Amino acid sequence: MNFTNFPRRRYLDGATPLEPMPRLSKALGGKVDLWIKRDDLLPGAAGGNKTRKLEFLIGEAVEQGANSLITCGAVQSNHCRLTLAWACKEGIDCHLILEERVPGSYDPKAGGNNFLFQLMGAASIRVVPGGSDMLAEMQKTAEELKQKGKRPYIIPGGGSNATGALGYALFAEEFMGQINEGSLKVDSLVVPSGSAGTHSGVVAGLFGNNAGIPVIGMNVSRKKDAQETLVHNLALKLSEKLSIAAVPRELVVCHDEYLGDGYSRPTQSMKEAVLLFARQEGILLDPVYSGKAAAGLLDFVRKGAFAEGSTVVFLHTGGDTALFVYQDYLV
Ligand SMILES: *Cc1c(COP(=O)(O)O)cnc(C)c1O
Predict the structure, then answer these.
(1) DSSP 144
(2) Residue 30 binned pLDDT confidence (cut-offs 50, 70, 90)
(3) Among the four 129, 196, 207, 208, which has the fewest Cβ within 10 Å?
(4) Pairing relation of β-strands 68-74 and 215-219?
């Protein structure tokens, strides 16, 4: 696939590591060979998946001459943290609108990502109730900024439109390069599925590479049908953008069994996964995304959903900053 026609800022520094997890594989019975793709180690303050999307999103913003970014997310949003970090690096203002999805959960003094919003100096932070029309809220901020003579650019929640998802289609090229180089025959790739840019991009990118590697999405915010529709619709937009054949619906597979009571609400299986990865491999997951996705991975291994002798890669999307606001729950 050709990505050179899309404006892009360069934030990556080569491929993220693709590592085996021998101790975790053994702790789970040794029948499945587990590997991890370390997108938690991507560049950008505290790391994580949004940097791949922001290369293309901020690339477009800069090309359009924008001098203010507006984005939105949950009260502990990793996406807001990384958008702000790269905005700092670019010398562009960054305005955040935070959705209080769990009533009463916003605390201006909270640690984790919220602390980093303050530390990196967001140009403004506005908190709106859960269920608000976030696009309308961002447009409101954009109008105010235009009246002050600014040129704002709106980045949707999670950076998940076709432009942002390009970053994860390009990820597929990086990943294929690594597995071909290492002759690693991968039977499945497990990814967290949230605002859908990551999952859609990976599916479209692997499909565009004719990889034949099944992708399993573990939901962190929606039920199965709603999430599969969201991921597939975005994958279709992306296939059009990349001039590849339309991604078939059956390539989009989501599981909601590890979601618990909903987005950001902790579960026992997430806690177990966070502790197991930390203690077996020294790898820090997060409570909201990678912890729940890893809970799905562990359950799949234990129930024999992967054939004996298969190789499964887990995409670690980052987010460990949020561990520090779940301290009481985790230990
Ligand atoms: C945003 C995020 C995800 C989910 O990615 P989407 O593209 O929104 O589906 C997963 N893990 C972490 C740590 C994130 O911040």
Answers:
(1) H
(2) very high
(3) 129
(4) unpaired
E strand or H helix that includes residue 155: none
Model confidence at 262, pLDDT cuts 50, 70, 90, reads: very high
- Beta-sheet strands, E only, within the chain: 18-20, 33-38, 68-74, 93-100, 124-129, 152-154, 188-193, 215-219, 254-255, 311-316
**Mean pLDDT within 195-207:** 98
Spatial neighbors of 117 by CB under 8 A, at least 6 apart, are 80, 81, 84, 96, 125
Question: What would the pLDDT profile of 72-83 be if each residue is shown by its tens digit?
Answer: 999 999 999 999
Q: Is the CB of 52 under 6 A from ligand 1?
A: no
| 8 A C-beta contact, residue 201 and residue 236 | no
The dihedral built from the CA positions of residue 238, 42, 46 and 123, taken in this order, carries a sign that is negative
Among 37, 49, 189, name the best residue to mutate to test ligand 1's pocket (greatest count of ligand atoms within 8 A of Cβ): 49
Catalytic positions are 77
CA distance 247 to 205: 10
Q: 318: CA distance to ligand 1 center in Å?
A: 8
Residue 308 Cα to ligand 1 midpoint, Å, equals: 29
Q: For residue range 173-185, list pLDDT tens digits in order.
A: 999 999 999 999 9
In this structure, what token pair is assigned to residue 136?
């309308």
Residue 23: both structure tokens together: 């101790």
* Length, in residues, of the chain: 331
3-class state of residue 56 by DSSP? helix
Give the percent of the chain with pLDDT over 70.
100
Choice from 50, 228, 277 to test ligand 1 binding pocket (greatest atom count within 8 A of CB)? 50
pLDDT for the residue numbered 248:
98
Question: How much is the pLDDT for 165?
Answer: 98
